[in-house]
Design brief:
The chain is of the alpha/beta class and 444 residues long. Helices cover 31% and strands 12% of the residues.
Length: 444
Amino acid sequence: MALIIKIILFPNLFSFDVYKNYEFESMKPGNVRMKFLEVPQIVWGLNNQKIAFARACLTARMLNRSLLMPSLSASLFYKEIDKLQPISFDKLKHSRFFKCPVSSLVMKCLFLIVMALIIKIILFPNLFSFDVSKNYEFESMKPGNVRMKFLEVPQIVWGLNNQKIAFARACLTARMLNRSLLMPSLSASLFYKEIDKLQPISFDKVFNFEKFNSLCNGFVHLSRYSDVRNQSDVFELQKGSGRRWTLERDLDQLKEFSNQDYDVYETIKIVGKNPFLWHDHWSVSDYAKVFECLVLVDEISKEANEVVSKIREVGAVANELLEDNTILSGWKEGMHPVDKKRLGVTKIYDKHPYLIQAAIDYEVCLRADVFVGNSYSTFSSLLVLERTQMMIKTGVSRACGINVRWPSYAYNLEGESGGPRLWMTNYSDSSLQAISYGSNAVSC
């Protein structure tokens, strides 16, 4: 009789409706020669692997053999089997619950649990719905929790406001996974295709790290790499890409990794495309909460103050690079369009890389009494979002048709009086799509 029986089909594909209460003769005391069953590497998602493992155990039981400890799959690939990252079964902390073979009573209970789980999924799928906008509690952030968990993301790239969106999306992803986001690198230079030419800059060289965590306390959290205790305790999560990687598949992946079974890893590292290109699962109001926590460091804020002071001395400003000169006409007397050179602020800008120059421009426009922008611009769209938030805090929920503080206008869209159309962000939108580049959604 063979000492080992080797099965070559994935355990995930076994049928498991034929098991009976077999006695383990080979396991009984006094039996000198134990017999074994070997199965292939167990693949796919965590719970699929748990079901596959249980199925392999039950198969071994039926054959009156001990299951040789199988390899699980640390990475999540559905079709590229050759890319699977194996991990030993005994590397998981919860493995003590699945030692096989075990007593007949325990095996019965395990089998019933697996069956009940499958029946619930089939008959009551709504019980497993996942609302990403829920107010999740950050167990890993609570005082007294000695082991914080982290999320690491790729370098954040492209323009200032694309980087702000990408950063917020990374924060909200970390929130969904109940983890703190490791402070990412931003990009000081502006390159869209030559990624190798990007000049990284630390987040805390632009935005105030401590104020961010203070303002966003209880919502999202940012950590430094020095907070990580074990740099090798990392699980790599490959983000999908291409047309087949749908919004639904992306959300399913996040659900999978929000499972407590992945708490065994101190850090989850997302690899692949940068966060700006990730699917969007969050509402405008969620993004606004993160943006509100982004406060410039004191040095940059003081320089923005200096530019604002220069502007107020002359009444108005328009950048000399504007191509549409028509927006410079039609203003009240006493308002004069000028450029940065005439204002005498070029020295402030020239000593900084692109990202900080753009951050100063953004801060200046945010503080303007009136802002006029282009609805197709991400820069303008995020400015209007934050200015809308400022109005909401004063009790104004809708600015259309009334005189309000901090009004914004879209000069590329004609309003009722023939001038620029009044512009206010709709906070009820379920994603940023309505204010993304190329949108004419201005609410009014």
